Amino acid sequence: MPNPKKMEKINLRTNNRIELIDITDKVQAIIAKTKIKDGICFLFCPHTTAGLTINENADPSVQRDITNTLNKLVPEGAGYAHSEGNADSHIKSSLFGSSLTKSRQAPRLGLGESERVRSNFEEERIRGKLYAWR
Amino acid sequence: MPNPKKMEKINLRTNNRIELIDITDKVQAIIAKTKIKDGICFLFCPHTTAGLTINENADPSVQRDITNTLNKLVPEGAGYAHSEGNADSHIKSSLFGSSLTKSRQAPRLGLGESERVRSNFEEERIRGKLYAWR
Amino acid sequence: MPNPKKMEKINLRTNNRIELIDITDKVQAIIAKTKIKDGICFLFCPHTTAGLTINENADPSVQRDITNTLNKLVPEGAGYAHSEGNADSHIKSSLFGSSLTKSRQAPRLGLGESERVRSNFEEERIRGKLYAWR
Lengths: 134, 134, 134
Prior knowledge:
Oligomer: homotrimer
CATH topology of chain A: Jelly Rolls
CATH superfamily of chain A: YjbQ-like
Low-confidence stretches of chain A: 121-130
């Protein structure tokens, strides 16, 4: 049985500049391994061009609406000072936030059918790391 | 005395499409019941069309400014793909976030006079559930 | 050795209406004092005109891009109802959020070279208080 006080890493690879990646199953798998029935799950995303959110996954159009609206509010290449071309992703990251506190109920994360944890708006195809406490 | 490790539910009914509901007293009541003097309070909102925030309540105009600005940034019916008519609420939910970590000092939540915890932007008159860990 | 269950205060003074203040060293110093090697750090900002975020600090232009974009999205003096002149800061506070949950690995906070915790968009030169749980 894993140590419930130890942090687990989730490695991700993004495919698009801006996207939402469903990490619910990866988080659930870590929770299931701990055999803890009731508790709190801490999620932390260490990348400053990515963030964490929980939102609907039943209808994939919600994902498109979220990313489209984020791109309207914080467009790519809108005259930013930062020279790396990813200033919009840094700003989106701060708007969504990099930490989440969630009820953890093994084997489920305590999410309804349509709610999923997402990692989002990576600006490039990087190998991301998401930290899930358990 | 309630089990401080168990999650408590707060049930809410919204009255308007977009609104901020003050849940401070409900959270305080749960904290007071635990008889714990010092600790951390975790709040989680399981609805993907609602979120949690702490902001000023002394002057109700702050609430109006927050909801008006959110409606300007993410308007209702702005050509979203999601067919349920509540895409804006899903997006607002991700911007505000669904979890809060707060100092809990019985019998007060550790908030000043003018700060209150809010649940916000429910898009319809639903019976909401807010989860407060204790 | 400090009590790891007790909350520590970080006092800050802001110099500009809207700014990001790097509080990483102050948080690290508190973590180092606890002598705890592995755990979770809770940060809470009790001011409703300020918020918390983690973002890049290697290139200071990211900070400017963040504050400039926030000012575009939520401008000062845009016809708000709140009469104190700081409605935009209240709204920015709700967008960024007032709590952060972070891995704490003594003596480091678990942040990479370029990531720093920030307290931001204070609207006036106040003596702020940031609460760091340990």
